[in-house]
What does this fold into?
Amino acid sequence: MGYDKYVDALASVVENGSPARYTVGIYGAWGVGKSSILSALRKALKSDEMPVVTFDAWRYARNPDVLIPLMHEINDAVPVQGSPFWKSIGRGLRAATAELTFPTPIGSISGAAIGNAVAGATQAWKEPIERRRAEVPLSGLKEIGDDLTKEEKRIVVLVDDLDRCPPDKIVNVLEAIHVLTDVQGFVFVLALDYDVLVEAIREQYPSVDAALFIEKIIQIPFWIPEVDRSSSVIGQVVPEWKRLLGLSGTESDTLESVVHLALRTNPRQVKRLVNSMLVAQHILGDSAEKATDKSILLAVIGMQLRWPAQFKQLHFALAANPDNENLGDFDADLEDFVDVRGLSEYMDAVLPGNLARDQVLAAMKYSQTTASASAQQSLDDELDGSIQGSANEYQHDIAAVHASWYQWVCQELESRGAVLAPRQQYIAFKYGTRAFLRVDGYARIGVRLFFPNSMRIDADDEQSFTVATGGRAGNFSRTLVVDDETRELALKYMTRALEAARRR
It folds into this structure.
């Protein structure tokens, strides 16, 4: 993924920073390659004269006193065989660890010294503005630090999977590190999601400015940069992706846009996208539905991976309003998408408004087969609860005071061959399979007719119509409220809309 130069730079910082008592933070979202960088860094730092400790925070997440297993991991990393200096350091570490008096590496603490130290560290964290440095619990550690400094040596501790831990455990690990950063000769490297770290600190210490607090603990931040979005980089993540997916040139361009705009070139998410696409294509098989546009399928899978909540919102809108023809007809239903970072740009690039509603909905059907079980159940429950039986629920919303006008509309249209089709937000009238009119009715408004935007309105009648927005509008935004004064006008245009549907 082109991370070699970053690993080399990090290795130089870890090996040469002075004095050797600091913490490096490798920041990146889930799946961008933090663990891979940490693994490569370990290989780059491999040296008989510099012990490198790998501490898996997730492994010890349930341990109430994480400093204990951390000390054991450090102790185990120092070679028992080797130079007299490191043998001496090893003996000192074993003696210091023995002061903790616990039965196993993940046992409970029984030494009063370490308990007091952690309590001191916790109190220091709770008073961040004027916090004192927690006292190092074991005097032997200071002696080890002095020896390391005198010989210009250091012990490096790489901490991974910290952001997988619950918020309180994240803070526990940081408190343990806080204790050891009082000791010369220890350099820590933490790989984690910065946003997760901020939220963990805010949850544990609501009055603390999390960002400023992190700056005091992690002195050297490194943000994993977004890699190039070219197909060659995608190929590094999933070799032979072109052969596996069988994409055309245009479809390959869509894949690159999805990877860049939705997945931010996150390697793990790229793999999920390709694997999800393979599953969806296999399900399509040789059926007639194989004609599903691959570009649209890629686009909706990318949306599902990056913005699952908005994916469900879009799917719900498409399913609940079958009379809209194009994606652009749902702008009013999806107006809050503009507030979601990156989503509007993504929609414009790969899910533009001129796409047919039926095509997008068909693609979403197959993308759901790759959704997680919880996400799928959530979507099914939402659709089942909101769409099935919605006709009766909606008709109850027709205000009683306007019931006679609603019945008049139904009689006039049904007598001319129209069919009533209840929807969640309105009542649709159809001729054959084509909807030509929508109707709703609220007490404060009245029975309102929604005519197709494509229908011609005579110039003399324009002033009687208004333009509506919202879920019941879409491509039916020309509205007219039925009352005694507009009755004849309403009948004129209801008939005109019906005749237009018959001709089509």
